[in-house]
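Quick bug: Phosphate ABC transporter ATP-binding protein output formatted oddly.
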Amino acid sequence: MNQNPAIGHNSVPKMTARNVNVFYGQKQAIKDVSIDVTSEHVTAFIGPSGCGKSTFLRCLNRMNDTVDGARVEGRIELDAQDIYAPAMDVVQLRARVGMVFQKPNPFPKSIYENVAYGPRIHGLARAKADMDNIVESALRRAGLWDEVKDRLGESGTAMSGGQQQRLCIARAIAVDPEVILMDEPCSALDPIATARIEELIDELRGRYAIVIVTHNMQQAARVSQKTAFFHLGTLVEYDDTSAIFTNPKATRTKDYITGRYG
Ligand SMILES: Nc1ncnc2c1ncn2[C@@H]1O[C@H](COP(=O)(O)OP(=O)(O)OP(=O)(O)O)[C@@H](O)[C@H]1O
Ligand SMILES: [Mg+2]
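Here's what came back:
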């Protein structure tokens, strides 16, 4: 039997990480992290500022490749394929494992073009009508269609923050990803826009493997079914969200969720 509760916990993992270490120059930011991520559940990453949540999240679609001085060790697989293998096409990988950032970052292009951009570079639409369908469907799934259908030509950057974040989610799902990574997607949003994104995450659950980093404990409890608690670069505890919040095994987890530090 596997002794690590972060492994073999879920049915068929979509992504697996084994013994992952991440260094920035000499400094180690992630220490021997192993975890499985499944498509059935939303997984929340929680932990105090600087504990490595964003660093580890970025390993899952090789975004750390773009960070100067960052080095990743260990093995990370998507559908049992090593994503750090030389043969892995990183552009393709990032389409399969999409990312939504803390600060909404729409392109300075029209709403339509923001969503059409990915499908176009991946050759997903042959005719204009196909692209129109992809754009509409992504905007519908992101809960934005009714608000923008009459102004698709307007700039994505001219929308409200909450709308921009939903546009970024639409942009991520337009290429039909398998995994969506969200790094504090609501931290720049008001409570109403936050609630809308949380509803959306719930609607997308099961269709994509979703990993969300959040500092908001209530949010983690509301949107996730699995929670991973990180501290000082290590994965301290990974369990059902209900267990983490009602009956954590590690003292450090308990201290964090009860607000003793962080
Ligand atoms: N580009 C970088 N270069 C050097 N060190 C970095 C870099 N990015 C992060 N670090 C360091 O790695 C550690 C983990 O940072 P990371 O951003 O992953 O933490 P986090 O848990 O996401 O924090 P927060 O909750 O504040 O977003 C920190 O000590 C941080 O200073
Ligand atoms: Mg972070």
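Actually, after a second look the formatting is fine. The two ends are 34 Å apart (CA to CA). Closing.
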